[in-house]
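Re: weekly structure request thread

Next one in the queue (695 aa):
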Amino acid sequence: MRLKRRLTFNAAIYSFLWGVCIACLLTIAFGSQFGLLAVIGAGQLSAGTLTYRHLSEASRAWILVIYVCLAVGLIARGGIDSYAALILLSMFAMVLYKNGVDIFNGFVNQLLTRQESRQSAETVKLLLNDFEEQSANWLFSIDREGFLIDVCDRFAEAAGRSIAELEGHQLIALFENKEDRWHLINEITKTRSFRDVPVAVNVNGERRWWTISARATDSTKRSGSIAMRGVIADITAQKAAEEKVSYMAHFDGLTDLPNRRLFNDTLNRTIHRAKEGDNIALAFFDLDHFKAINDTLGHPIGDKLLQKISRRLETLAQPGDMLARMGGDEFALLLTGEQALQAEEIADLIVQEVGIPFIIDDHNIVTGVSIGVAKWQPEVEDPDKLLKYADLALYSAKRAGRNRVVFFEKGMDIAAEKRRALELDLRTSLSLQEMHLHYQPLVDINTMNKTGYEALLRWKHPERGTVMPDEFISVAEETGMIIQMGEWIIRKAIEDAASWDDDLTVAVNLSPLQMRSPSLVSTIVNALARTGFQPDRLELEITESVLMQDSEDNIRLLHQLRDLGIKISLDDFGTGYSSLNYLRSFPFDKIKIDRCFVSEIDTREDCRAIIRSVITLAKNLGMTTTAEGVERQEQVDELRRQGCDLVQGFLYGRAEDLNACTDLRSSDTIYPITGTPVAQPKNQEDIIRKRQKSA
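Done, posted below.
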């Protein structure tokens, strides 16, 4: 600031001396002398403005002092020419003053611009240095012939080479893939900007992926100068992630087999390209009782089993075949050409291979496989239809007993459509009140008194007529509708039986699926509480198949029901696999002898021997016995001799609607449907007493 003030003071002194001298001479000048002094004065004004153009205060002081001095001199001289000169002097001084200000402002702006440019350059340099040191990417420069210039440490490290090796080395020579090289050459030779060009590079034997972006500079015509600058990014991790996502989208993560999506795409291409005469076969299969393996041994064992089965199945597939895991324990095999002609032999081999025991974590696992095979025909243009045919064949294989191969045949699809229609009608049957309970009497074989009724379900469809349970119960179980239907049966049977004689019981069948329902106990308890029906008058019948699934949980549930006072019966005894073991694990109240033994008890000794053994076993265990399917008096006589307790069958009445039952009392004598009495009561007083009670 002191220097600035000193320069301004000096300018004022010098301009004052020049101004006074010229002003004094103006007062005495004449003619050409006046013109010369005017030119000198104007020159001094301009000289000072130019000299002090970078210091605005000094420039303004110079102009102002000289102008004042010259103006005083011109006024003192007087005359028209002096006043005219004064006007011109004033205008000239104003122009110089403004130009001086503009020149100074331009100078200041220029200084500020230069300073900002230097700061920006330093900032960019710092950022680039920081970018190279810390970023996963790195910078590069090449000349117009594609040779690397000013290679940085980060580039050398990423390329697995030294800076000396890379300096002057062609950029495209780093990449081995010809397609990548030609693509990059094409971009560089255009000498214009490009972005994210992917290339593969070998770094110390490891395959890595880079993306290159660059832009041209202004010095592309000078040899050895930088023609392009750019940045390289390593996208190996991203590429690996993309490949993993692509793999997961088309392959099964557990078995490494193609998944449903890839299989369907391949099947679509195969069918759409097929010509008449081509051989194509599709095998659809799943493991038998795989859920039981998962439930008993755990899902890790189940997963290992799927992996081992996949490896076995791969040995049966030939090049051109496609083996895929469709989900869960479901697999599919697409065969073409000669392999398709041998579809039956290949399917049989699959059954054999899967049937060989597996040793997994010290567990000896034996399983089977059911296979459905469909062969392509030219009229099958929709791949989904071929899948449907194979699935229908698989369904037939399961219904036929599993662990076998079934080929699709015409008519299976019609049966499937009928089953589908039956399922749709079944779903609305309860809401439309089409389900009804019929009741068949249970008779004491010694007194011939009715002891109760078994509730049997009937479906009265407006178009199908009366549909028997063997036609729709399997569909209800497969679709899960049996749970809702079973709960309705329990509520309805208890509600109906609540109006009967107090000595009559009602028996209701439970399916395996119902036993796994968490609402079973609450449904029974609520129905008993609402109607006031005594629990000991309710009898629940289960089959051995119920105990074969989740036996421990089912035994626990049976004990819970038994504690409520409800009676439990074992239905169809003798037709299962482990009847004696189940009798030992749970104390049933009753055993029901299957009709297959009763039907020939009066003609075959082996049937009599089996029934005799069952009755003896039941008596020793404190259980009663009921014989099903009694249709002839001879059967009743023989069952009585063997010691059976109760009988049930057409001889004493078919299952009838509640309104059609003629007597819902525990009458003393029941007659066969022929109308002939089969027994007489021993005590007439008992008859009178029971009839009075029922009235």
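The two ends are 131 Å apart (CA to CA). The first strand starts at residue 138 and ends at 142.
Next request, please.
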